[in-house]
Design brief:
The complex is a heterodimer of chains A (about 180) and B (about 575). Chain A is an alpha+beta fold. Chain A contains 4 helices and 9 strands; from the N terminus they run E-H-E-E-H-E-E-H-E-E-H-E-E. Chain A has 2 domains: about 80 residues, 2-Layer Sandwich (Alpha-Beta Plaits), CATH 3.30.70.260; about 70 residues, Alpha-Beta Plaits (2-Layer Sandwich). In chain A, the strands form 2 sheets. In chain A, strands 5, 6, 7, 8 and 9 form a 5-stranded antiparallel β-sheet that branches. Chain A has a 4-stranded antiparallel β-sheet with strand order 2-3-1-4, covered by helices on one side. The longest helix of chain A has 13 residues. Chain B has about 575 residues and is α/β, with parallel strands linked by helices. In chain B, about 40% of the residues lie in helices and about 15% in strands. Chain B folds into 3 domains: about 200 residues, Rossmann fold, CATH 3.40.50; about 160 residues, 3-Layer(aba) Sandwich (Rossmann fold), CATH 3.40.50.1220; about 170 residues, Thiamin diphosphate (ThDP)-binding fold, Pyr/PP domains (Rossmann fold), CATH 3.40.50. In chain B, the strands form 4 sheets. Chain B has a 6-stranded parallel β-sheet, sandwiched between helices. Chain B has a 6-stranded parallel β-sheet with strand order 11-10-9-12-13-14, sandwiched between helices. A 6-stranded parallel β-sheet of chain B has the order 16-15-17-18-20-19, with helices on both faces. The chains are: A alpha+beta (about 180), B alpha/beta (about 575). Chains A and B meet through helix 1, helix 2 and strand 4 of A and helix 9 of B.
């Protein structure tokens, strides 16, 4: 299967100035646009984890991860396939709620999607929701009916299913049957 | 013992065995140069005319000696003048450590005088770069930089040090080079990034697969790339080629990796490759490429390139596998090590019929001769005949570069210094100076064109200053020959901005720099000039007049099928 699709790369790097730009410049210089990017520290404060989504086929992703492996601040790289990983993104929506009736409708939608209302004002509501891409697209479509005033997404973060981690690629695999795609 | 950053830097360089530095001082790097003053008996510093010359000289030094080259520059324009030199070293995997100083901590980010974000600028053209803001980290950084520059696939590393760091004091513990990997930050780097320092041990199964492929092959072809030169794997490569009895095509960067006089050599491959090399690429059934990256000047059209053959790629850099050309099989590893393992397990093969076929095509180009003008071949034959066989040849970029590589037979890695990947006009003179400094016992010649020479001829001053006897041969056709060749063949003879009829008198120019020069247009005069140059033992410029419309032949157009010769 070698079609162009959204691919997720998890990269552990030194938590130092300039490293993120080194990683992101590698993508642009090899001709890829970063579709989504999320960065944060890990349990080790000296190490950051970057989750990057790009469009590419499997061969291209292999080449990209080989190139990433040449950057000295990069500790490890893992390609996370959709089948074998859980992916989540946090999104905040500020939606117009002109009347009480509209507000109730929005709250109903929020309940169905298990989104949280985190701010209420006279003319608007702000919702926070965690989910994968499909779920976020679905709620966004519904909320657009009420007019989305502003929206912000954190970028996708992802972890591999089961007990495999990015720290040890060759570790004996003992698949656990947990982590089904729960809403 | 507590020392200033500048002294720590010098001590670290001594630790690495550095005895030669090319560079140019300036405001921010003054502390370092002040320290260098008292290291005069241990370290030779070569002051060039321009930082670019220093960068190329350090590169030429590294390529010819196999050691890590070192280059100093000041902040701002000093650092940016290095950029072309760094990119040149990066494209050709040459190990050079560039060190510049930036403005002090209190001035950083304020657009101060001669301030520039050089680590940002050089990020894509270095293996790794550093901005040192803390004197306590300086020793670790320098040790890391040298290890990175020379390990794995070699390449340039840049260190930018803040001026105050060179004055601040820190505790310095001397550490022998062998112990660097087991101490400090290099130890940690080794633990998590060891594949970048020690190429993986070749997998036995992979070796076995390749041996089966070789045994099954009727028409094998070997490609000798720059990796054989950088890995100093000539001996192993030659044994391998002779054992599998295959013709060897050599890339531009592979010159010297396999003896040019070996009967298995088909000559250069690619855009200006010989008919024998290019036809062999198109008809072999197994292509084993060692240390080459299938650039667009070799695999002109990656789709059709050797598409009939199984391609096996042996390279130290995992990221090169399947990058430009899809391969059937690959082995990641150091050329020397992989080839010596292969040599142990392969039995003698015979491919007389295939060799006879390949060598029925010419491995050299014949050029016309004129009465009052020299031909490239005449010049190069005279040089080859009169100069010692181990002469180091440095070139610039253009027609003269291709002619030199087509006609010279390079015998050992590091004998040919040329900007292959980046194609930097003006590389040659600096590189030749660096090579002569690193190899004082050898004759070093610089082959250039009138266009390339005009770019960085200011380094003649360096030659004179330190009495570095480099002999420069200018292939003077009063035009930017290679561009003109494209204009003739592809752009309807529109000679747009390529005529150099108003150039300087190179003989007088040489004299102005305090060197000897001669203009020659006959073979007899040329031979006489070469003898004079060799005898003089000083820098010398020989201006060889050649025909404006002389072309490099054969030629395959960019992106075309490798056997589609247009001349």
């Amino acid at each position: 299967m070698n079609e162009v699709r959204r691919q997720t790369l998890a990269v552990l790097v030194d938590n130092e100035a300039g490293v993120l730009s080194q990683v992101s410049r590698l993508f642009s210089r090899k001709g890829y646009n970063i579709e989504s990017l999320a960065v944060g520290t890990t349990d080790d404060p000296l190490v950051s984890r970057i989750t990057i989504e790009v469009l590419g086929d499997d061969d291209q992703i292999k080449l990209l991860s080989n190139q990433l492996g040449k950057l000295f601040p990069v500790h490890s790289i893992k390609v996370l396939t959709p089948e074998k990983s859980i992916r989540r993104e946090l999104v905040l929506f500020k939606v117009r709620a002109a009347t009480g009736e509209k507000r109730n409708e929005i709250i109903q939608i929020a309940n169905i999607f298990r989104a949280n209302i985190i701010d209420v004002a006279i003319g608007s509501l702000t919702l926070a929701m965690i989910g994968d891409e499909g779920k976020i697209d679905a709620i966004q479509k519904l909320l657009e009916e009420f007019e989305v005033l502003e929206l912000v997404r954190t970028g996708v973060v992802a972890l591999e299913r089961g007990q495999d981690t990015i720290y040890d690629e060759t570790k004996e695999k003992g698949e656990f049957n947990y982590g089904k795609n729960v809403l | 013992m507590k020392m200033t950053g500048a002294k720590i830097l010098m001590e670290c360089l001594i630790e690495q065995g550095v005895d030669t530095i090319f560079g140019y001082p300036g405001g921010t790097i003054l502390n370092v140069y002040d320290e260098l003053y008292s290291y005069g008996d241990k370290v030779k510093h070569v002051l060039t005319s321009h930082e670019q010359g220093a960068a190329h000289a350090a590169d030429g030094y590294a390529r010819s000696t196999g050691k890590v080259g070192v280059c100093f520059a000041t902040s701002g324009p000093g650092a940016t003048n290095l950029v072309t030199g760094i990119a040149t070293a990066h494209m050709d995997s040459s190990p050079v450590v560039f060190i510049s100083c930036n403005v002090g901590e209190n001035l950083i980010g304020k657009d101060s005088f001669q301030e520039v974000d050089i680590t940002g600028i050089t990020m894509p053209i270095t293996k790794c770069n550093y901005l040192v803001r803390d004197v306590n980290k300086l020793a670790d950084v320098v040790r890391e930089a040298f290890a990175i520059a020379r390990s794995g696939r070699p390449g340039p590393v840049f260190i930018d040090i803040l001026k105050n760091v060179t004055a601040n004091k820190a505790e310095f513990e001397p550490l022998p080079k062998e112990e660097h990997f087991s101490n400090g930050s290099l130890k940690e780097l080794m633990q998590r990034s060891s594949q970048n320092f020690q190429p993986p041990k070749p997998d036995e199964k992979d070796i076995g697969t390749l041996i089966d492929m070789i045994k099954a092959s009727k028409k094998p072809l070997l490609i000798c790339g720059g990796g054989v030169v950088r890995g100093r794997a000539q001996e192993e490569f030659t044994e391998f080629a002779e054992k599998i009895d295959a013709p060897v095509a050599i890339t531009l960067m592979g010159g010297g990796g396999f003896k040019g006089r070996n009967p298995l050599t088909t000559g250069m491959v690619g855009m200006h490759g010989t008919k024998a090399s290019n036809m062999a690429c198109n008809e072999c059934d197994l292509m084993i490429a060692v240390g080459c990256r299938f650039s667009d000047r070799v695999a002109l059209d990656p789709e059709s390139f050797a598409s009939q053959a199984k391609i096996v790629h042996i390279d130290i850099d995992r990221a090169e596998i399947n990058k430009n050309v899809k391969t059937t099989h690959h082995i990641v590893g150091d050329a020397k090590r992989v080839l010596s393992i292969l040599n142990k397990s392969i039995t003698q093969q015979h491919h007389d019929e295939w060799k006879e076929y390949v060598f029925s095509f010419p491995t050299e180009t014949e050029y016309d001769e004129y009465d009052n003008l020299l031909t490239p071949k005449q010049i190069l034959s005279a040089i080859a005949e009169l100069c010692p066989q181990d002469t180091i040849v440095s070139t610039d970029v253009g027609q003269h570069q291709m002619w030199a590589i087509q006609h010279f037979h390079f015998d050992y890695p590091g004998q040919l210094l040329t900007s292959g990947g980046f194609g930097t006009m003006g590389f040659g003179l600096g590189a030749a100076i660096g090579a002569k400094v690193g190899n004082p016992e050898k004759t070093v010649i610089h082959i250039t064109g009138d266009g390339s020479f005009r770019m960085n001829c200011n380094e003649l001053a360096t030659e004179e200053h330190y009495d570095i006897p480099v002999i420069t041969f200018i292939f003077n056709n009063k035009t930017l020959g290679m561009v003109r060749q494209w204009q003739t063949l592809i752009y309807d003879k529109h000679y747009s901005q390529t005529t150099l009829t108003h150039g300087p008198d190179f003989v007088k120019l040489a004299e102005a720099y305090g060197l000897k020069g001669r203009r020659v247009s006959t073979e007899a005069a040329l031979r006489d000039a070469i003898k004079d140059a060799l005898e003089s033992g000083h820098g010398y410029v020989i201006d060889c007049v050649i025909d404006t419309d002389e072309m490099v032949r054969p030629m395959v157009g960019g992106g075309s099928h490798i056997t589609k010769f247009i001349v």
